[in-house]
Structure formats: C-alpha cells, structure tokens
Amino acid sequence: MTDPRPRSLWRGRLLALVGVVLVAFSLRSAVAALSPIISEVQADFAVPTWVAGLIGTAPPVCFAVFGIVTPILERRFGLERLAAASMLIVTSALIARSLAGDAATLLLATTVLFAAVGVGNVVLPPLIKTYFPDRVGTMTALYSALLAMAAFVPPLVAVPVADAAGWRFSLGMWAILALLAVVPWVTLVARANVARAQAPVTVDLDAPAPGVLGRLPRLALAWALAGTFGISAASVYACFAWLPVVLVDIAGVSHAEAGALLSLFGAMGLPWSIIVPILITRSRRVGVVYAAALIAGLTGVAGMLIAPAAATILWVVLLGTPQALFPAVLVLIQLRSRTHEGSVALSGFAQSVGYGIAALFPLMFAVVHELTGQWQPVLIVFGLLFLATIPTGLIVTRPRTIEDEWEHRHGTW
User: Fold this and answer.
1) Number of helices and strands (H, E) in the chain?
2) What is the DSSP string of 126-147?
3) Where do the coiled-coil regions begin and end (predicted)?
4) Domains of the chain, residue spans
5) What's domain 211-413's architecture?
6) CA distances for 412 relative to 156, 209, 408, angstroms
7) Nearest in space to 127 (alpha carbons), one of 179, 205, 180, 70
8) Mean pLDDT within 350-369
9) Overall CATH class of domain 8-196
10) What pLDDT, in 10s, does the model give residues 60-89?
11) Chain-wide mean pLDDT for the chain?
C-alpha cells in the first residue's frame, strides 16, 4: 500500500494540525501534573494512601476500558466530535480537580479526567490517518514527541508554579490548553455539517461493516500490536513505579540520583518518538525497531542483574530504549489497517489490551518482591516481558493489514 503524494502539512488542514498538536499535549500534561505536587495538596486536606494508590492505578485502567468503548462511540458520533468532547471533559475535570476540597472529589475528578484522556488516546491515530494519509510518519512523530514532552514538562514546572501561585493554579492552568484544543475540532465539525447540508443526497454503497472491533480478537496481527503496546506501556509504568527504589537498593545510588535517573529514563522516549515513525514509514524497517528494543531491554536487565553499580546510567538508558515500541505501534495502527473503521477499532483494541497489561505489571512487581524479598527476580520478570517482542515482532513485520488477514481467513471484510 503506497501513501498518497505528500502535500503541505497546513494547506487545507491547518485546523486539523493545530487540533492534533493541542490534543496530544493535553493528553499527557493532564496525567503528569498531579504527582509532583501531591504533598502540597495533602497540606490542605488528607489524601489517604489508598486514594493516592487508586489515582496512580487509574490511568492504565481507564485507558484500557475506554479503548473498548471509544470505537463504539466513534460509530455514533464520529472522530472529530469525540476529540472535541474528550477535550471539553478534560477541561472540566482539570478545573474540578483544581477546586477539590477533599480526597473523594480529587479521586472522582481524576478518574473522569483519565476516562476522557482514554478517548483521546484512541481517536488521535485515526484522525492522523484521516487528515494526513500522506504524512503518517511525520505527524505520528510530532504526536508522539508531544506526548513525550508533555510527560516531563509538567513535572518540571508544577512545583515552581505551586510555590508561586498555589497548587490549585498549578493543576488548573493546563485546562487552558485543553479548552483551546476543543476549538479546531468544533470548527471542523461545523464546516462538515454545512458542507453536508449543501451537498446532494447520495447513498453510501461502501459504508463500513459493523462489528469490526469484535473481529479483532480473532486476528493474530491485532493481538501482536496489542502485545507490543502492552510491552512498552508495562515497562514504562513499572519503571516509574519501582525503578528509583530498585536503583537505591541494588545500585547504591542516593534518592536524588535515583530521581534524576528516572527522569533520564522518561526522556528516552523523546528521541525515539521522533526517529521511529519516520524510520518505519520511509524505510519500513519495522524489524529493526523490534530488534533494538529487545537487545537493549535484555542488555539493560542483564547489566542490572550482574553489575548494577558499574554503569548505572547506561543500564537506565538501555531500559528506556523499548519505549521505541510506543511510537512504532502508533504508526503501525495506521499502516496495518486499510479502512477508517479498521483503524479506529485497531487503535481501541491495541490500547485497551496494552493498558490492561500495563496496569498489571507494577502490581506483579510488588508481589514478586514481597514473595522473594529481592529485586533480582523482579528484573528477571522484566526480561521475560522484553522477550515477548520476539513473537509479536515476527507477526507485525509481515506487510499486511488486519483487513487482509481477515479476508484471507474468513472472506469479505
């Protein structure tokens, strides 16, 4: 399948470009802004440990649930309406969270926020496929780079802003970007409504078949992409939950050094988010990305097991390299689907299963450590996670779409 001839990113689609940029940044800034200032929040009202734990678990759980729900909503409302609605709910939830007066309100607002972010996660890849079919690599690189930036920029500014203007302003200020993200998509919906009203009545003979989401569990390609997403997401959530503690215990670093190394781990997502989409769309080197993630991940685990204090920075960099699988999946969702509805369903399925896996791994690490009293078995589990890139990579690297796979096995899509 060849891409259409590339044209200007902004000619005739400037609103979509602005909308993608604002939504992408809002998706992660909404998630990353609370944890750095939770102590300031607790100075105003009590936030029990179990509530803080639920807030930490909520993102992958909400993302998994709404990965299933969003394709169903898309058939009823359309991508643009869902993008606008999700950002409007994000805006409201951010404001509600900044005005919270107790832990229950904080938890409720945060859960609603993550639910809306889950919808936005699913609709952005199909929106890129719809508006930028000739620039899939460039737009996915931009999108995933913004996600990476929004994961570490809010923590850098949250505390200084909270010190200067209070934690409520620090949490609520991100609502401005989310509200601005509503405007492009509402405008595009209004334009489409006007164009539809002026167009002659036609019969759509090629309407997408219903029930596409229900077909995906029967396709190996869909499971391979979902598994790839899960490997990347699980490694990120597990490291953000446990890497500082592991580094302090087995590498002998200070708590401050462990925090800096965690920031380095997070920053590893940024260069890969730029390089990988372009590499895949221009050279189709999907296998190279999987091989790099596998080799780097296993080497990082081996280094932490054998000589954790010898080259700690290198091991952390290597452990952060499998984050390259995240932008790879975002691109492959678009390249491994032929139809609009296939793209939406595949995005929802991959993210739902992937975030479900991600929600389990931090808890699994805690259980393994509790049972063994050591971090080495936990690192071995981490290595087994990376080994899963072998079967998933072998399936994903075959150049076919989910529609091709279904038609080969079951007939007409």
Assistant:
1) 19, 0
2) HHHHHH-TT-HHHHHHHHHHHH
3) none
4) 8-196, 211-413
5) Up-down Bundle (1.20)
6) 51, 10, 9
7) 70
8) 86
9) mainly alpha
10) 888 888 888 888 888 888 889 999 999 999
11) 85
